[in-house]
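Section 5: illustrative case.
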C-alpha cells in the first residue's frame, strides 16, 4: 500500500466503497453499528447525562442561595465564569495528577463547564417574577418557601430550561474531547478515524454526536413545554 493511503479497519469482506474509502459507506456503518458506534454512543449519553445532572444540582442550589443572599451572586459567578473560560484540554491536564486518566476527570471537567450557564439561567428566571406578583402572593399569606415553589420557580422554568439546553449541547460537544483522557464516548471512534483516516468512521461518529445534541435539545424543549403549559395557552 502506498504511503499516505488511508488505513481501513479490517472488519471482514469490504465493499467497493470501503476499499476506495468513499465519503460515507452506509453498508459498513450499518454492519459495524453494534460494535463500533453503539457502545460509544451509549457511553457518550451516560457521560453527558451525569455531567448535566450533577452540574444542575450544584448550580441550581448555588443560584437559590445567591438569590436570597445577593452578595453571593458576584463571587459565585466569578468562580463559575473562571472555570468556564478554561480550555477543556487544559482543565483535563490540570485534573489528571489528582484523579488520573479516568471518567472522574472527565466528569469533573464537564460539570465545571455547565455551572456558569445554569447558574445564570436560574438567577435570570427567578428575577423574572414581577414584584407585583410577589406582593400578591405575600398578601395571600404565602411563606417565602411557598412563594419560591408556587410562584418564582414556575416563572423561572422557561429560563432554566433554556440554560439546560445550552449546557447539554455544550457538554455533548466537549465530551468528544474526553477521548484524549479515556477511551470512551463518541470521541473515541472519531480520534481513531483521524489517525487512520477512514472517512466513514469519522463522519459516522461525528454525525452521531451532532444528532445526539439535537435529540437531547429536542427532549428538553418538550420537557419545558410540559412544565409550562400556560405558555402554550398564552401563545394561542
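Designed sequence:
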Amino acid at each position: 500500500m502506498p504511503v499516505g493511503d488511508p488505513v481501513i479497519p479490517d472488519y471482514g469482506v469490504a465493499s467497493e466503497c470501503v476499499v476506495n474509502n468513499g465519503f460515507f459507506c452506509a453498508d459498513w456503518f450499518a454492519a459495524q453499528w453494534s460494535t463500533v458506534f453503539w457502545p460509544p454512543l451509549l457511553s457518550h449519553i451516560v457521560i453527558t447525562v451525569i455531567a448535566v445532572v450533577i452540574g444542575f444540582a450544584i448550580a441550581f442550589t448555588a443560584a437559590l442561595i445567591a438569590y436570597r443572599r445577593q452578595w453571593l451572586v458576584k463571587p459565585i459567578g466569578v468562580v463559575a465564569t473562571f472555570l468556564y473560560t478554561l480550555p477543556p484540554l487544559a482543565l483535563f491536564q490540570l485534573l489528571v495528577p489528582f484523579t488520573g486518566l479516568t471518567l472522574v476527570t472527565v466528569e469533573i471537567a464537564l460539570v465545571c463547564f455547565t455551572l456558569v450557564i445554569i447558574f445564570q439561567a436560574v438567577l435570570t428566571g427567578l428575577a423574572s417574577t414581577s414584584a407585583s406578583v410577589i406582593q400578591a402572593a405575600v398578601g395571600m399569606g404565602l411563606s417565602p418557601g411557598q412563594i419560591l415553589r408556587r410562584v418564582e420557580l414556575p416563572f423561572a422554568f422557561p429560563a432554566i430550561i433554556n440554560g439546560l439546553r445550552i449546557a447539554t449541547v455544550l457538554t455533548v460537544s466537549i465530551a468528544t474531547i474526553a477521548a484524549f483522557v479515556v477511551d470512551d464516548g463518541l470521541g473515541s471512534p472519531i480520534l481513531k478515524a483521524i489517525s487512520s483516516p477512514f472517512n466513514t468512521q469519522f463522519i459516522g461518529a461525528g454525525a452521531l454526536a451532532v444528532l445526539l445534541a439535537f435529540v437531547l435539545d429536542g427532549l428538553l424543549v418538550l420537557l419545558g413545554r410540559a412544565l409550562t403549559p400556560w405558555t402554550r395557552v398564552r401563545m394561542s
